[in-house]
Amino acid sequence: SSPVSRSGRFASGPGADVAEFTESISFDWRLWRHDIMGSIAHATMLQKIGVLTKAELQAITKSLEEIGQEIHDGKFEWKPELEDVHMNIEAELTKRVPTGAKLHTARSRNDQVALDMRLWLRDEIVELAGELRGLQGALVGLADKNAEVVIPGYTHLQRAQPVYFAHHLLAYVEMVERDHQRLTDAFQRVNVCPLGSGAIAGSTLPLDREFVAEQLGFVDAKGKPVVTQNSMDGVSDRDFAIEFCSVAALAAVHLSRLAEDVILWASSEFNFIKIADAYTTGSSLMPQKKNPDVAELTRGKTGRVVGNLMALLTLLKGLPMTYNRDLQEDKERLFDTAVTIRGCVRLMGAMLENTSVNTKNCAAAASDPALLATDLADYLVRKGIPFRQAHHVVGAVVALAEKEGKALNQLTLEQLKALDKTFGNDALGVFDLKKAMAQRNLIGAPGTKEVARQLGRWKKILKG
Ligand code: ARG
């Protein structure tokens, strides 16, 4: 049977290779639920403006709901020769209910597909936002369970200054918070109803666009319907998809950095954490191996999510107005991004919930007195030495310790005083880690009180 879109004008159907090349049902079937939802809203409006009778509307709605149930149950037969999800559903509807032929009045697949994608993406955004909150919860949970643990903080992957392990994890909570904000913001631009744009130029029929928008929940904070304001933009705009993919790409980059930290921490060299067996895999050859595959795959999948964004930007860049079939290529990138980022967020969170901290190894690493070299310089600053000079003096202290093969705090007071007479009898007290941590109380600093305050703040936010 020839596709509905070719009836009348065409003498023959497409060749098998053309059909295979142009079909989208193999991936856009995912839109079925939203396609049906949109069709019911459109039909309801058509009845309101007198295009359908009440009985016709009822028959169409009932049949669409039945088709939906069959798709849900896996009993619906998708026909590749009908190209896409829209044609498959409409053709089946019309086969069952002849007045289904009225459903496409004043509608094009161009505004229909834009509608379906927006509806689908709205749901995805809500789901992803929830997953991001879950990940924040996992990070805060792990931080809270190990609130006393101090580790070296790193710059250039070299030991820099001591920080609470919780402080390190809360850095990611902040990053994920920005992802959540961006996602929520993007939602507003997804949540606009394009239906009524037709193929490009709206319709001569008196559609009630706002009524359709209201039915489908395309409303602003005040409950007012939000519809696209230009029919050409309405059918050719994919900014909403690109914006989502961009938010997802940045979130994935954040996850990838977290994954990298986890991978390092789980290595024998760091040995700061132990990931539960269920979130690791073995080696087929080396019996001793326990690999952090969930973290590695998250890092790896980030490449795909970033690539999807590039693919969509490139897809759009040369397109003349308005709808071009190229746009069909948007779906696999969008779907893949949504599914991938959700999986990454969920699995990283679950992995962290099943990760324990090797407190002894963390304490050993954090006890390196070199981490407090900056504190020693601050000590001299408190005594009135200009910081640049203090930095130079402590540099000499570090060099001396290195020459003698000693840790910084193993130098004698006399050795310190010989390097600078400003050092007082209390100078070596700087290397008391507990005291040092108590002194970092600026807003956002890794001090004992401040980290407890931030942890408390996040626990409250995530509970509410
Ligand atoms: N499958 C198409 C897509 O994804 C639906 C719109 C087709 N419109 C058209 N005029 N051929 O973009």
Could you give the topology of this structure?
Layout: H1 16-22, H2 25-28, H3 32-48, H4 54-72, H5 85-96, H6 109-145, E1 150-155, E2 158-164, H7 165-190, H8 209-215, H9 231-236, H10 239-266, E3 273-275, H11 293-317, H12 330-353, E4 355-357, H13 359-366, H14 373-382, H15 387-404, H16 413-419, H17 433-438, H18 448-463
Antiparallel strand pairs: 1-2, 3-4
Helix pairs in contact: 3-4, 3-6, 3-8, 4-5, 6-7, 6-12, 6-18, 7-10, 7-18, 10-11, 10-12, 11-12, 14-15
The structure holds arginine (ARG).
Domain Argininosuccinate lyase C-terminal: 371-437
Pathway: Amino-acid biosynthesis; L-arginine biosynthesis; L-arginine from L-ornithine and carbamoyl phosphate: step 3/3
Subcellular location: Cytoplasm
Attribute tags:
18 helices, 60% helix, Ribonucleotide Reductase Protein R1, domain 1, mainly alpha, Fumarase C, Chain A, domain 2, 3 domains, binds arginine, two-stranded antiparallel ribbon, 464 residues, Fumarase C, Chain B, domain 1, single chain
Written overview of the protein:
Keywords: Amino-acid biosynthesis, Arginine biosynthesis, Cytoplasm, Lyase. Belongs to the lyase 1 family. Argininosuccinate lyase subfamily. GO terms for molecular function: argininosuccinate lyase activity. The protein has 18 helices and four strands. The chain is mainly α. It folds into three domains: 102 residues, Fumarase/aspartase (N-terminal domain) (Fumarase C, Chain B, domain 1, Orthogonal Bundle), CATH 1.10.275; 255 residues, Fumarase C, Chain A, domain 2 (Up-down Bundle), CATH 1.20.200; 97 residues, Fumarase/aspartase (C-terminal domain) (Ribonucleotide Reductase Protein R1, domain 1). The strands form two sheets. The protein has a two-stranded antiparallel sheet with strand order 1-2. A hairpin with a 2-residue loop joins strand 1 and strand 2. Helix 3 runs antiparallel to helix 4. The mean pLDDT is 96. Bound molecules: arginine. The site of arginine has 11 residues, from helix 6.
